[in-house]
Write a structure and sequence with these properties.
two-stranded antiparallel ribbon
Length: 312
């Protein structure tokens, strides 16, 4: 092998030899932005969780903020309630949003499907709407004062109830609205993954006698498993950061009676706006909530990546 083939000659007589650090000039700017805007705020948030008080009068309390979240008392009650609601919120999205997204994707990639472009547009359209607009519109639609007469006229009077006003149904209702709005994203990702599967593989499976279900379970699903894992991770992270849909359909207090309180709304009340009636933010406690949430996300994301991301 010649010297010219072993190195790339650059303009001005310089050369890029194997093992050189020329690639650092491209990584350092992105790394600097990541450190300044991501890594440092994260580390500083962990440091802040060990203090209490405001910026002018702050004192070191160690892990006291964490013990307040896990021990007894009103703070712990609100935290465990918000955490359980967030997991329930996430579970509904996994079981409804992503499962229906997979079903729609299989239908949209079927060779016999007609008008798929229209259906794709209909499914994806809600994702283009602002969450506050969607939440407000569904709040009007679900209001029994507005829809009661219409539902009774078509024989569905039993649906004319305050779905958002009852603690037993408010969180489920908000979760279903959120699933409806964001279903288009996993659907389109699944569609893209399924379209990348070679037709020869499906034809070979069909020749071997595999029906549609066997082709999906034994050929398609294993091949798109990395995409399934990525969608699960995105759903997990986004649901633990959910705030706007609850704020739009109820309020930041998680009404009624904290039945729709999520980690996002709890963090906002504690660390940003301040709990009622005091109204003074507890930045240390809010930072502790954020730090625990980060640990939960890492514990969920890393195993999912290891299980679903294949080498080939």
């Amino acid at each position: 092998m010649s010297e010219l083939s072993r190195r790339s000659v650059l303009r001005g007589g310089r050369s890029l030899t194997p093992g050189a650090f020329y690639w650092m000039r491209y990584i350092v700017p992105a790394l600097a932005v990541y450190v300044v805007f991501m890594a440092w705020p994260l580390l500083d948030s962990i440091r802040l969780s060990l203090y209490t008080g405001n910026h002018a009068n702050r004192s070191f309390v160690g892990f006291s903020n964490y013990s307040r979240l896990f021990a007894g008392g009103e703070v712990a009650t609100r935290y465990w309630s918000a955490l359980s609601h967030t997991f329930y919120f996430f579970a509904l999205h996994m079981l409804i949003q992503n499962v229906l997204g997979m079903l729609f994707a299989v239908m949209l990639t079927s060779p016999t499907m007609r008008g798929r472009q229209v259906y794709q547009a209909v499914i994806f359209l809600p994702t283009t709407l602002a969450v506050l607009v969607t939440g407000y519109l569904w709040k009007l639609i679900l209001n029994p004062v507005w829809n009661g007469e219409i539902l009774r006229a078509i024989g569905l009077g039993f649906l004319a109830k305050g779905w958002l006003g009852e603690a037993s149904s408010a969180l489920t209702t908000i979760s279903l609205v959120s699933c409806w709005q964001w279903m288009g994203i996993p659907t389109m990702m699944f569609v893209a993954a399924l379209r990348n599967i070679s037709d020869e593989l499906l034809e070979a499976a069909s020749i071997e006698g595999a029906n549609a279900w066997h082709q999906f379970a034994r050929v398609k699903l294993p091949l798109i498993l990395p995409v399934v894992g990525m969608i699960a991770i995105l759903t997990f992270v986004n649901n633990f950061n959910a705030f706007d849909v609850v704020y739009a359909m109820e309020n930041a207090n998680g009404a009624p009676n904290y039945a729709t309180d999520l980690i996002g709304t709890l963090f906002y009340r504690v660390g940003v706006a301040g709990q009622h009636p005091v109204g003074i933010p507890d930045t240390g406690l809010g930072a502790a909530i954020a730090a625990i949430t980060f640990i939960i996300l890492v514990c969920g994301v890393v195993p999912t990546l290891r299980l679903t991301q294949t080498k080939e």
